[in-house]
Design brief:
Length: 447
């Protein structure tokens, strides 16, 4: 039987796609009902960090459900919620230790936008409500999070519904938005934030949200040295909160617990999701400093926010077990080590003429495709290069995560490679071998 629209009753995410039915996951591999094996080279959407089929997680779910499966976050707390918050506070950057649990990354971004607003309101600055962010960024698909998202294609159909939030260019050095070269550029792209704040009105911006390493939209773009500290300095100068979106880059993925730690900056609010549960359960969080939480307690008595499934006992039991697994197996260190090996192997793929750039940090990496490596000319969108590459890799048993449209809102092709942290060197070799086979086929299609 084939699974895909219009058979059955599922409203699938890709309506032209036929879906293999996965019946088993084990380590870095997925198996479909016909027995075909897939190497999960992107951990879904860079979610699966401790691998598939970890019995420890299912046991934690059963144990928690046997104790209690649900309580409402305004009425009770549970041991799993308390212990998970303590475990997170130990690994979060110093001082970031007030943690509000939610279910997904978009929900956490919504929470951060509202937290910034409520903090400003209760600090006597009611005119501050807008959150600045960067073009070609991704922060989620709900209306608030889509308003800060800078991915043109995702925004376009819903523009009339979005909030009037300002955007500025990303630190995408491979295609500098100003045609400059680091360090002579003097970080003009960071200074663009200052221009934006001045033009929009310094006292209207409640926060600035950004990913420390840009993920799904541009593909594992690491900002140049000094970029994030300049952003932080500008935020401080204009009394704007710095919101760090660690949904993709956080929880060890880049070789530090949180990617922001590579850059020695201190955010005011953080959001995390994806890897918090390793994919086993919907789980995310908004995190802040005591001073910000305390302002809300003093003024209105709490955060005017909440969902039926926030502070979920089973989600937190999963989160706690994932952290303990990562700690016990030194997986953040492993991510750094295997990430360096993966990046070195990806570099070798530059022997293919359409591999323009490879980049990343830890096990958050990406390959950007170009029609002409010298001029960096992208492929026409009609070629659907990234989609073809992931479809071919998929046929060859490798799952990757694509991104398009980051050059000018339409053009731009890349794939993200972000396997589970437990990946072994020989499995990275296998991944690279499948990429080689895939790219050889792409080469013959391009010619
Ligand atoms: C950086 C970032 N923020 C927010 C989100 C939204 O998370 P979710 O898809 O769980 O709503 C994503 C999802 O890819 C993301 O990468």
């Amino acid at each position: 039987m084939e699974y895909g629209y219009p058979q059955g009753h599922v409203f699938y995410r890709k309506m032209a796609h036929k879906y293999p039915l996965i019946t088993r996951g084990e380590g870095v591999y997925l198996y479909d009902e016909k027995g075909k094996r897939y190497l999960d080279g992107s951990g879904g959407a860079l979610v699966v960090n401790i691998g598939h089929g970890q019995r420890e997680i299912s046991q934690a779910v059963i144990d928690q459900m046997n104790q209690v499966g649900y309580v409402h976050g305004t009425q009770f707390t549970t041991r799993s919620v308390e212990e998970y918050a303590d475990a997170l506070a130990e690994i979060l950057p110093a001082g970031m230790d007030k943690i509000y649990f939610l279910s997904g990354g978009s929900e956490a971004v919504e929470g951060a936008i509202k937290l910034a607003r409520q903090y400003c309101l209760e600090s006597g600055q009611p005119q501050r409500w807008r959150v600045a962010s960067r073009w070609h960024s991704y922060h989620g698909n709900t209306l608030g999070s889509l308003s800060v998202t800078g991915r043109i294609g995702s925004r376009k159909p819903f523009l009339p519904l979005l909030l009037n939030f300002p955007h500025f260019p990303p630190p995408y050095c491979y295609r500098c938005p100003y045609d400059l070269v680091y360090p002579e550029c003097n970080l003009k792209c960071a200074k663009a934030l200052e221009n934006l704040i001045q033009v929009e009105g310094p006292d209207t911006i409640s926060g600035v949200i950004m990913e420390p390493v840009i993920g799904a939209t541009v593909g594992a773009v690491v900002p140049p040295d000094g970029y994030l500290s300049l952003i932080q300095e500008i935020c401080q100068r204009y009394g704007t909160l710095y919101i760090d979106d660690e949904v993709m880059a956080g929880m060890g993925r880049t070789g530090r617990w949180f990617a922001v730690e590579h850059f020695d900056v201190q955010p005011d609010i953080m959001v995390a999701g994806k890897g918090m549960s390793g994919g086993y359960f919907p789980l995310s969080a908004v995190i802040t400093r005591e001073e910000i939480a305390e302002r809300l307690r003093e003024k209105s008595g709490g955060f005017t926010h909440g969902h039926t499934f926030s502070h979920h006992p089973v989600a937190c039991a999963v989160g706690l077990t994932v952290i303990r697994y990562i700690q016990r197996n030194n997986l953040v260190e492993q991510c750094r080590k295997q990430g360096a090996y993966l990046l070195q192997k990806l570099e070798e793929l530059k022997s293919f003429p359409f591999v323009g750039d490879v980049r990343g940090k830890g096990l958050m990496t990406a390959i950007e495709f170009v029609r002409d490596r010298k001029t960096k000319e992208p492929f026409p969108r009609s070629d659907k290069f990234a989609e073809k590459a992931i479809d071919l890799a998929f046929q060859n048993g490798l799952v990757l995560y694509p991104g398009t449209g980051f050059v000018d809102g339409v053009k731009g092709d890349m794939v993200m490679v972000g396997p589970p942290f437990i990946i072994e060197e020989k499995q990275i070799d296998e991944l690279i071998e499948i990429l080689r086979t895939t790219f050889s086929r792409m080469e013959s299609m391009v010619q």
